[in-house]
Amino acid sequence: MQMVRDVMSTDVQYCTPVDNIYEVAVKMRDFNVGAIPIVDDGRRLVGIITDRDLVVRGLAEKHPGSTAVTEVMSRDLVTLSPNDSVQKAADVMARHQIRRLPVVENGRLVGMVALGDLATNRYSDESAGRALGEISEQHTVH
C-alpha cells in the first residue's frame, strides 16, 4: 500500500505569522504553488493560505498587500500524517473538496500533498480514482 510519505512534496515553501499577504502571493508565483502553509518558529502548522483565500479574504475585502497573513489564513485545518495511505488522502480530499493538504507529524509541517501528486501515482484502489474524479468535477469551471 502506498503511503502519503511516498507521494508528498517535502520541499515546502511556507510563511510565518509575521509575514504579509504580498509575501505569500510572491511565493505562490515564484514557486508555482496554490497554497502556502503558515508555521510558527518551531515549524508548527498554524494556518494555510490558498490562492482562493487571497482573492476572497484579501482582494475582495480590500486588504492591502501589507495585511498580516493571520488576517486571511484558514485556521480550520485538515491535515494528513505521512503514515496515512494514499487512499485516505484521496478520501479526505474528496470529502472536504480540498486539492492540497499539509502533512503534519507531531504538530510540525513535514510536507504537502496535492491532488496532482495522487493523480500522477498509480494505485490499484478504484475508489481512490473515483474520489479524485469527484474533486475535479466539483472544481470545474463551467
Description:
By secondary structure, the protein is of the alpha+beta class. It is 37% helix and 17% strand. It has helices at 4-7, 21-31, 51-59, 86-96, 115-119, 126-138; strands at 35-39, 45-50, 100-105, 108-114. The strands form two sheets. The chain has a two-stranded antiparallel ribbon. It has a two-stranded antiparallel sheet with strand order 3-4. A hairpin with a 2-residue loop joins β3 (100-105) and β4. α4 runs parallel beside α6 (126-138). The protein is globular and about 45 Å long. The mean pLDDT is 86.
Structural class: alpha+beta
Radius of gyration: 15 Å
Terminal Cα span: 36 Å
Query: Mean pLDDT, rounded to whole units?
Result: 86
Q: Determine the strand fraction and express it as a percent band.
A: 15-25%
In helices, the fraction of residues equals 25-40%
Instruction: Write down how many β-strands occur, each being a DSSP E stretch of 2 or more residues.
Output: 4
Largest sheet, spatial ordering of strands: 1-2
Categorize the overall geometry. globular
